[in-house]
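Marked as duplicate of an earlier ticket. Keeping the data here for the record.
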Amino acid sequence: MFLDCCPMITNGLETISQARMVEGHEGITRDSIAYLCNFLQDRLRRPTNKATGLTVEQQVCIVLRFYASGSFLQVIGDTLGYDKGTVSRVVNDVTDALIDIKDDFVSWPTDVDSINRIKCGFYRQSNFPNVLGCIDCTHVRIQAPSDDEPSYVNRKGYHSINVQAVCDFEDSHIFNTSTLSNHLQTNHRGLIDGVILGDSGYACRPYLLTPYANPTERHQQRFNGCHASTRSVIERTFGILKRRFHVLHSEVRMKPEKVCRIFGACAVLHNIALSRNEPLVNDDGAGVRLDQPVQVPAFLGVQDGRNTREHVARVFFNH
């Protein structure tokens, strides 16, 4: 609808002299760059008549080059013909602009159609019912910060930011987890609302199911196997994200707060890239209709994580 109201910006992309500013952004086509420029134009357009002033298109392409390559700001500047200070300012401005629009592209599903589509997608892929997402964390390497340096050393001995994300089944949209725990604790009504899957590092909750620590019965073993294959989508998502935006795979030489914003900006771009392409389709012809999620029998027992998990395991994996 935004594109219907505002004309798409395309001319600027054709006049950028360095073709490398546009080409080579993995998963970001010219059309998507034009869409992004159109979406961000009010936030990035500068009130200046200087011939040297950067257009919205140039700012976006500089940042995409930085995100995609993970190179030093100086290298980006030398490659594209800008000084390091300009590149640094542009990275800050465009990152902030992307964070400003994150709620338009990175959000928890709330409408019935989206919820049912996600549940059905997970079930078709792995036969795990009523799943809304898979949750996990990934480390983004950073240089040693000057403030509170020991807090950023992870168990592998290097400095990093530990980022938590939830994704759906479509290779895969990333959800906003900043207030997710509070939302689920407050609003989750039981299995009817769906669950997310996490590894054993999380506490088992009615809305967050983890694998059995020591499965002894067949339905528990089957539950764990299906849980693992379903949850692998979040690991693939982190891999896709870091391949698309290599800045997240290398050491980011910035303050932790800025690194967190860059990850958020990359998540926005990742979801935009997905939303502008046809969704992945399973051609197995099996499973359920997209608008008809699997019916999960109501659980009337003690509403805690372990009992909810046992109910799901016995109903769906006891065959």
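See parent ticket for discussion. DSSP finds twelve helices and five strands in the chain.
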